[in-house]
Amino acid sequence: MRKSLGMKLAAVMLMAVLVAGCATMGGAKDQKAIEKTLADWKAALEKQDVDGMMAFYSENFTTDRGNTKAELKEFFQGAKDQGYLEGATADLTAAEIKIEEGTANVGPISLSSDAGSLEASLVLKKEPDKVWRIVSSEMNQ
């Protein structure tokens, strides 16, 4: 009886360790996926590749001002056409990624171009296809 109880307790403890390990691995995997998304988004911005940037935005995207993904694309294209994306850079070094229940809050991100600079924060969600995409943004000048 005592041996049986000890074995059950050991099995429960092992399961707890395995579950915790899997949760941590998932968190690390999500962190890496988000970091890659941000790095690829940054590269597209710095190349002034509007279509490339838009690939990282969800179809459900809205800004803090209520703009949609389509409106954001028009904005980026207009900014590019008028030269406002010349010298564009995104500095992610100070950005913190906080992941909670399929949502990641990222910021601050320092954005600058020859036209000026501002600070941004992004919210990404893990969508049904398991890809992290930007679902909202907030800009502070």
Summarize the structure.
Helix content is 45%, strand content 33%. It is α+β, with helices and mostly antiparallel strands. The chain has one domain (2-140): Nuclear Transport Factor 2, Chain: A, CATH 3.10.450.50.
Q: What attributes characterize this protein structure?
A:
6 strands, disordered N terminus, Nuclear Transport Factor 2, Chain: A, 141 residues, single chain, alpha+beta
By oligomeric state, this entry counts as: single chain
In total, how many domains does the architecture comprise? 1
The helical percent reads: 40-55%
Q: Quote the CATH topology.
A: Nuclear Transport Factor 2, Chain: A
Overall strand count: 6
Identify low-pLDDT runs: 1-25
**Overall radius of gyration:** 21 Å
- Biggest sheet record: 6 strands, mixed
Overall residue-averaged pLDDT value = 85
> What's the helix-strand series?
HHEHEEEEE
Overall morphology: globular
Question: Which class best fits the helix and strand makeup?
Answer: alpha+beta
Break the fold down into its secondary structure elements and pairings:
Layout: H1 2-46, H2 50-54, E1 57-63, H3 69-81, E2 89-91, E3 96-100, E4 103-113, E5 116-126, E6 132-140
Parallel strand pairs: 1-6
Antiparallel strand pairs: 2-4, 3-4, 4-5, 5-6
Describe the protein:
It is built from three helices and six strands; from the N terminus they run H-H-E-H-E-E-E-E-E. By secondary structure, it is of the alpha+beta class. The protein has one domain: Nuclear Transport Factor 2, Chain: A, CATH 3.10.450.50. Strands 1, 2, 3, 4, 5 and 6 form a six-stranded mixed β-sheet that branches. A hairpin with a 2-residue loop joins strand 4 (103-113) and strand 5. The model is unreliable at 1-25 (pLDDT under 50).
